[in-house]
Amino acid sequence: MNIQKNTLYKINILLIIFSTFLQGFNHSVLEENDHKLILKVEDESPIEWINSDQYPQDISAIRLGNSNSIDISATLSIPLWTMVIALPTIEKPDIQSNNIRRNIITLEKELTSGDIQTINSIPVIQIKDIGYSRFNPGGVLVINPIQVISPTQISIIRSMNISIRFPEWNQSYSRKTKPAITNAIQNSFVNKKYLREWQKVPEHKLAKPVEYPTGHWFKISVTENGIYKIGHQDLVNAGLSNQSYATTKIYLYSNATGGREIDNTPGIAVNPNLVENARLIEGGDNGYFDNGDNILFYGRATSGIDADKNGNLNFEQNAYSNVNYYWLLVADTDGSPKTIETVSPSTASADYSVATYEKLDHHELELTNFLRSGKAWYGEIFSGSGSSISLIFQIPEGSDENAELKLQARGAENETVHYFKLFLNSSTSPFASWSTPNWYVSSKTMNVSLKSGAPNIIKMAYTSSKASSQAYLDYMQLRYQAPLKPQNNELYFWGPANSGIIEYNISDIGLSDPVIWDITDWSDVSILDVSTQAKELKFRLYNDKSNRSHFLVTNAGKYKSPNQITIIDNPQWNTLRRPDISAQYIIITDETMRDAAEDLAKFHSEDVKSADRLSSIVALQSQILREFNADIVDPHAIRQFLTYAFNNWNTKTRKPIYVILLGDGTFDYRHIESESGDYVMTYQVEETTGSGNAGFASYTTDMRFTYVNGTDKRMDMAIGRINARSNTEAQAAVDKIRSYTL
């Protein structure tokens, strides 16, 4: 009975253990030492070509037993053998094969030349995804058992030996004290003999928490790009005392990305929580912010156009939040806040002179996730064969009429062919047409001739092989050269994709008292000291192709007001972001289930027998978002938190081991369709496969929250979830855990 209870307890603690790879073949270790591993692999499984009669028009798969598979094209997947190999370091080892035994298989259909080329280009053996499983270096041994001899014949590996020689490693390190290897880690590797010696436990970094000034904090929400104005009275209305404040006490902060999504790359450094932004006190020349004065700052939407390091402009959609938050601090003591400066243009000779700019008109509605999974949301619906969607794009006078049109749509039904046609303005002849099968994503880029100075109507007509079939428009975008002419409107424009001194010639302004803002660095914007001459603005500045300049022409009449200003007493920026915390078991939950979470933490840290106790902590998701993304919703804030805990919490060799997400989750981060079920965020993976089947390859996997050690995609903590939707449900689950264990 005690053995059974102990086993149940360990199962309960692990929840979801580190995943192991499904192996459709037999393998054995012939030799294992600290510098070499020799394996033998073999598989006598029969070959099966599933849906061969549909190839190459539709999806098919060559299968070998229960091996893994990989899509090599839109219509074919092939088998792969995979296993995880422990390594002494994350350096790539030397790998060779010998004693290969093959047999020849005749196929029932011919393979296409493209698939033949792809199959034969895949190495027979390779080690990929080298990284860490918690503290142990390792890599995935991938074996391609198929080689194509002719369009109707393939060669299958039935057995072979694989020799892996490890690079030299520091054996003195292996003599240091190492934590015990868990069963989950041990079972995930083929070679287990040196697992403990090869562990690389990260040094405790002792990252000191950032101490922000004390004072009155205000949370400011914005949803659009623009220059925002906050008056003294606005802050008084939000709860600030009605008195004068020294301008040296007023600070502005944002999150580290300016509202965009957190980088999802594993292994990136933990972002600073708050980044100071420049602000301008309008009317504060006397050194005080008081009645009638305003605070000006540049605010960004969470989605928008960004320039990449190669100088390409792209629209970046934030799938997690429509609201960006800025934090205004009226500090108790004087300091040196970042101020918006007025800068003079360059006086150097121009390398380029421009009177136009690259303009992107991007239309994208986020209305439905009909897949009920993943990050992809869609807009207008084609509700049956014969339906259409028309979009109007107003093209400024003087624009280049040759434009690039880019769009993405998707069929919403299988066993259907979806047909699309594009019409421009009143033309009855389509300028583009295509079809796509089933639920595939349809992405198209083409040239189109527009009418300058007029509304351009692009009609997208839809028919299908089934009258009741449906499809959705994801987005439509035009890219063209437009004149630098505000015409009484705000004008956002980018420098050209060239490096050098650029002379910008802006005409037909229309705005009274126009101001040019340099918003290239969204956290440190400036005002250009440029005066209007003959209703024109002309200035020169250096432009770097890898960091294209970004400007805004506007005036005081166009300044925006925040959506909301809320005073936050004691925001608590460092309750989790501290190196003195020690916890092996982390419970992440919602405020509504806090009581059940505290009971679960007490159970693991106090109620179980002493040998099984784990130091435990409850972390509210709202507090994680506050300390790791300034309150902006993004699941990667959880990964940033776990990365910080793994590297900085004071647990020496016993770093956080287990994570439990206590609360249900959903794909609807922005509550577009419903707020129901959204308690602890899920991690939605949107895989893009060779079949164009993105979205249907999407899935929820909490394991990616624990990619915290190294750049690999491998779990470094055990993680699981209790899908409760109330404290009552959560407490019931905790009570069951208690009754099973005690």
Describe this structure in words.
12% of the residues lie in helices and 38% in strands. A hairpin with a 4-residue loop joins β5 and β6. The strands form twelve sheets. Strands 3, 4, 5, 6, 8 and 9 form a six-stranded mixed sheet that branches. Mean pLDDT is 91; it is low at 1-23. By secondary structure, it is mainly beta.
* Global morphology: globular
Mean pLDDT: 91
Category by helix and strand content:
mainly beta
Low-confidence parts: 1-23
Beta content comes to: 35-45%
**What is the CATH topology of the largest domain?**
Immunoglobulin-like
Distance between the termini: 11 Å
CATH class of the largest domain: Mainly Beta
What is the strand tally?
A: 46
**Any guess at the CATH architecture of the largest domain?**
Sandwich
User: What's the helix count?
Assistant: 8
The amount of helix comes to 10-25%
